[in-house]
Specification:
Layout: E1 6-11, E2 14-19, E3 28-32, E4 36-38, H1 39-47, E5 53-55, E6 60-63, E7 75-76, E8 82-87, E9 90-95, E10 104-107, H2 111-118, H3 126-176
Parallel strand pairs: 7-10
Antiparallel strand pairs: 1-2, 2-10, 3-9, 4-6, 5-6, 8-9
Length: 177
């Protein structure tokens, strides 16, 4: 039996961390491990396509690309149940809520990562999916109301045109008589 309270498994965005045991609020879950890189080396790694860089401060960055770093599988969420914190030059992930077995362990990567790497419209967290679904439903309802309004306007313009043509025909018959 694993002593870790989580497992790596399939998630909506690829691989993710899932709780296997209840995890209590404020308990440390996992350490984000990897070699320390300077700012220049981190920039070079990022330009080379490395997506597992964790910036501790302006001077130091952790390269978490190694598969032995299981913390790299913690996915982003705008509605997180975990948080990252630094102790000297080490980074840990801890629970900010009680996490039930089966729940995915997610934390907020920050606005820069969301804008530049994920893209705000591509975020797959439950909060953003619900927001997009709600917006799409509102847009569908708005479009349906507009189509109904245009159809009513078209029908009313037809009926008013018929009425005016009938009135014109009645006036013409009255003049003849």
């Amino acid at each position: 039996m694993s002593r870790r309270p989580f497992r790596v498994g399939r998630s909506r965005t690829g691989l993710g961390l899932f709780a296997t045991k209840p995890i209590r609020k404020n308990s440390r879950i996992v350490e984000y491990k990897g070699p320390l890189l300077t700012g220049k080396a981190a920039e070079k790694a990022e330009n080379g396509g490395n997506r597992y860089l964790y910036e501790i401060n302006k001077r130091w960055t952790i390269d978490g690309a190694a598969r032995s770093n299981v913390a790299r599988y913690g996915n982003h969420s705008c509605n997180p149940n975990a948080d990252s914190y630094n102790v000297k030059k080490r980074v840990f992930i801890r629970a900010i809520k009680n996490i039930k077995p089966g729940d995915e362990i997610v934390y907020d990567y920050g606005i820069d990562y969301l804008k530049n790497v994920i893209g705000k419209s591509n975020c797959q967290c439950s909060r953003c999916r619900k927001r997009r679904a709600k917006r799409a439903a509102e847009n569908r309802a708005k479009r349906k109301r507009k189509e109904a309004r245009l159809a009513r306007a078209k029908v009313s313009s037809r009926t008013s045109a018929k009425k005016s043509s009938k009135k014109g025909a009645k006036k013409a018959t009255k003049r003849k008589a």
